[in-house]
Each structure stands twice: as structure tokens, then as C-alpha cells.
Amino acid sequence: PPMTIRPVQAGDGLLMKDVRLRAVKDAPYAFGGTQTFDEESVLPDSHWHTLAAEVGGQVEKWRDRCVS
């Protein structure tokens, strides 16, 4: 199937969680983060929803850090 690439949207929290956990499990050394798959996989869904809102431009203090 074709791949669609689009900016993160505020409602993409669980999608971000899925993508991030797959990436960290596959190649944890590639992302420069300090958390392991085991640590990130137990973060509550609210963490991922908040992150998506920040990256998606819904949090004012993050807007200048994100691509829109």
C-alpha cells in the first residue's frame, strides 16, 4: 500500500506511541534518548496524547519548535 506522510496532529497520541515503541525496540541506539523500550512502553496514554498536542501545535509554548 502507498505511504502517506503528514505532520503530526493533536489527536495522534496513540499513533505516536506505536511508531515510537516500534522504533525504539528496533534500534534504540538510533534515537539518542535515555529511556529504554521497557521504560517507554509503560508510559500512560496521557503522556502520548500530551506529546502529540505539543508537537501538533496545540500547546502555545511549543509552537515555535514544531513544523506546521
Lay out the secondary structure.
Elements lengths: L12 H14 L10 H5 L3 H11 L13
Helix pairs in contact: 1-3
**Span from first to last CA?**
26 Å
Largest sheet: none
Gross morphology is: globular
Low-pLDDT sequence parts: none
Report strand %.
under 5%
Q: What portion of residues is helical?
A: 40-55%
How much is the average pLDDT? 86
Count of runs of 4 or more consecutive helical residues: 3
User: What's the helix-strand series?
Assistant: HHH
**Can you count the beta strands?**
0
Structure commentary:
The model has no long low-confidence stretch (mean pLDDT 86). It is globular and about 30 Å long. It has three helices and no strands. Helix content is 44%, strand content 0%. By secondary structure, it is an all-alpha fold.
Task: Summarize this structure briefly.
44% of the residues lie in helices and 0% in strands. It has helices at 13-26, 37-41, 45-55.
Defining key terms:
68 residues; mainly alpha; 44% helix
